[in-house]
Each structure stands twice: as C-alpha cells, then as structure tokens.
Amino acid sequence: MNDKPHLDEEALAELKDVMEEEFDVLIQTYLADSRSRIESLEQALSENNPDIFAKTAHSFKGSSINIGAPRLGQVCFEAEKLGKAGALEQAPAVLEQIYTEFREVQQRLENFG
Q: The CATH number of 9-110 is which of 2.30.110.10, 2.40.100.10, 1.20.120.160, 1.10.287.1080?
C-alpha cells in the first residue's frame, strides 16, 4: 500500500512562491510531459522493451517527485523496478496504477492554490 500523499502541498506552495508567474507554465509542462511519458510506457510495453520501460519510468519518477507528486513517483519507481527486472508481464497492473494516480494528480494540480 502506498501511503504517500497524492500531492506534497507544502512543497508545491514553496515552488509556487519561488516560480511566481511561471508556476502555471511549470505545471502545464509537467502535465504534458507526463502524458508523453505514459504514451512511451505504453509503447515500450507493447514492444516488450523493458529497458525503455525502465528508463521512461525512472524519468517520470523524478519529475513527479520534483513537482510534488510523491505517490505517483512511488508508482513509477515500481514500474522502473519491473523494467529493470525484465518483468513486463506484471507491468499492465502497475501501468493502470500510473493512469489512476496521474488522473488524481492532474486534477489536484489544476485546482491547486
């Protein structure tokens, strides 16, 4: 069970203070990049490419943690581990968790502060 919060609102508030008017651009960029990463994960899975799957999940993990979405970062870490282990037969279930958590994060970011 992933007990991390969907959003680290304190970290996001600090980021918003630092970024000022660029904060909205940062959020929109993160969301667009995340959609692209999800597509890359789907493609890597369909092509049975665990290396690309792991690398994409690793990148998605880092950006999610940096933006203040620790639960999504944790799910991406689980996906990364599957890719590194070459265990893509388990990846569809983790990818479904990524979809679900990304939708939650997207909604919360769009409504943040």
A: 1.20.120.160
pTM over 0.70: yes
Based on C-alpha coordinates, what's the Rg of the chain? Answer: 14
Our measurement of the distance from residue 51's CA atom to the centroid of its chain's CA atoms, rounded to an integer in Å, reads 18
Tokens representing 43 are 């493609």
Residue with token string 């958590």? 101
- The values of phi and psi at residue 101, to 5°, are -70, -35
Which residues in the chain show pLDDT less than 70?
Answer: 1, 113
